[in-house]
Amino acid sequence: MSNGEIISKEIGREMIQNFVVTHPTAIKAHAFDKNLIMELLDSPGAEGMRIYYAYENGAPCVVLVAIDAHGDDLEDNPVIERGKPCPPYCTRNVYFLDGPIT
Question: In whole numbers, what is the pLDDT of the chain averaged over residues?
Fold first, then answer.
């Protein structure tokens, strides 16, 4: 299984800024605690995770599920949701959202 790749922070920031410019009032990100992500990835058979776009009570959110070596959802494993959306839960140092790309 090969899902994803490491990119530079500059490319990541540019991609995020492209979204922010196109959708200025949208939720930009969700923050999750490391222990939750580690529990998901340490669950039996987990080789990665899939992030689903979802809605809860009409608000956009994401749902994280473990996937196996074939990329199949592991439906009997933990599922993560209720991360802190940004906005409104943005810290003062959000490098990937602050200002235009220069």
Answer: 86
